[in-house]
C-alpha cells in the first residue's frame, strides 16, 4: 500500500517538523522575553522621572484590583479560622488560632493567592491593553512620534505592577487576619487576648513579614513581565490578543506557584 | 548645496524572511509636493513608508530623508528626525484612552516645554485646520472613521513636520469624508509647506490631488509620472489599475501548483 506508507511518512515528517519548529519558537521567545525584560529595566527612567505615569497605572492595576483582593482575603481568612479551629481544638490548642491564621497568610496565602488574583485581574488586562494598542498601531504611531513605547507605555506599567503587588498582598493578609478574627473570636468564641497576643509573639518581622514581602515583589515582577511581554509579542489580530491573554493567566499562575516553592525552600529551610 | 529632494530612495531591497517585498526600488519626493505611491494590496507600499520612517531597515540600498541616510542614524538620531515627520496610519491609530485634545497635544507635551496655555492654543489651531475644533473633548470611540483620520492628521502635523506620510488615507471612507480628506492633504501640503507621501489604491481621488505618482508592482516601480501622464498611459499594468480590470498583468490567481496536481487527478487516474 504505497499510498498509506507515503501518507504515514509525511505525517511523521510533519510531526517532527512541528516539534522542531515549536522548540525553536519556544527558545526564541524565551530569549526575546529576556531581552524585553532588560529593555524595560534600561528604559525605566521615564517611569520614575514622570512618576505621574506610574501612579496612573497603579490606579488601574492596583486600586481597581482592591475589591477582588479584599473580598477574597476576607473569605480566605474566615475559612482559615473555621478549618484551623476544627483542627486545633482536637489538640486543645484553639488559642493558637491567631498564629495559624497569621502565619498561613503572611508567609504563603497572602502573597500567593493575591498574586494569582492579580494575574487574573490585572495581568490579563495589561496583556489585552498592550496587545490591542499594538493591533491598532498605537505603539507604531508612538514610535513614529519619536516616543519610545517601552519607556512611555511598558515601563510605567511594569513598575506600577511591581509596587502594587506587595501592597495588595499586605492588604489581602490584613483582611484575612480580620476574617480569621471574625470567625474565631467573634463567632466561635476563642479568647481575644490569646488570639492577638500569641499572634504577636509568633510572627517575626524579618522571618515572616519581610519574606512575604520579598515573595510578593518577585511575583509582581514575574506577573507584570509575562503580561507585558505577551501583550507586546501578541499577533495583531483578535485571535492573537485573546491567545496572549490566556497565556498570561496560565503562565503567570504557574510561574507564581513554581517561584513560591523555590522561594519557600530558600527562606524557610530548617525553620521549626 | 540645497537639495530639492526631501526623500531619496536608491536601489532599495527588502524582504520579510525569505519573501522579497522590494527588489531595487528608486524613488524621490521633492519638497512641497504630494506624491502618491500606488499598487495592489501587498505589493510593498506600506513597507516603503516604514522604511522612510526608519521602522525597518533595508537589506540593500539607501534611504535618505532631508539628506540624512537612515541606515547611519542611531536611535537618538532617528528619533530626532522623526520629530520632523508625521505619519497618518490607516485607521488613525489614535490613543483610545485619552481625548481628541490630548491626542493632538501628545507630541507637544512629550517633546516641548511649552506651558499648557500655549499647548491649548496650538492644539485648537491644529484641530481647527481639520475642521474638528468642536470635537476636542470627545473620546476617539465617539468619532466616525473619517473624523478619526482627521484628528490623526491634526496630531501628525502638531509639531509642524516637513514630511507627512499617509497610509491608505481613503480606505473605507464615505464619498464626503473621502473628498474632505483629499482636500485636506492638498491644502495642508500647500499652506504648511509640507511634503506629502500618500500610499493609496484609490486612483480617482488621488489623481485629483497629487503632483507625481509611482506605481509599485511585485517589489519594483513599474511606472511613474504626473496625473496627466498616468491617465494617458498605455502601459498594461497602469491601464489595468486605473480602470480596475480583474485580470491582466496582475493575475487573478495567486501563484499555485497545477490545479490538476493539487486535486491529485493524475494519481487517481493511475
Overview of this structure, please?
The complex is a heterodimer of chains A (272) and B (270). Chain A has 272 residues and is mainly α. Helices cover 88% and strands 0% of the residues of chain A. Chain A has one domain (17-267). Chain A has helices at residues 2-42, 45-49, 51-61, 66-90, 97-135, 138-144, 149-188, 192-202, 205-233, 238-267. The N and C termini of chain A lie far apart (69 Å). Chain B has 270 residues and is of the alpha/beta class. Chain B has one domain: P-loop containing nucleotide triphosphate hydrolases (Rossmann fold, 3-Layer(aba) Sandwich), CATH 3.40.50. Chain B has helices at residues 45-52, 75-82, 100-111, 116-129, 145-156, 175-192, 203-209, 227-232, 236-243, 259-262, 265-269, and strands at 5-16, 19-30, 34-38, 60-65, 68-69, 85-88, 163-167, 195-200, 212-217, 220-225. In chain B, the strands form two sheets. Chain B has a six-stranded mixed β-sheet with strand order 6-7-8-3-9-10, sandwiched between helices. A four-stranded antiparallel β-sheet of chain B has the order 2-1-4-5, covered by helices on one side. In chain B, β1 (5-16) and β2 form a beta hairpin. In chain B, α3 packs across α4, α4 (116-129) packs across α5 and α6 runs parallel beside α7. Chain B is globular, with a radius of gyration of 21 Å. The interface between A and B is medium-sized, with 12 and 22 residues.
Describe the structure using short key phrases.
heterodimer; A: 272 residues; mainly alpha; 10 helices; globular; B: 270 residues; alpha/beta; Rossmann fold; 6-stranded mixed β-sheet; 4-stranded antiparallel β-sheet; 11 helices; 10 strands; 24% strand
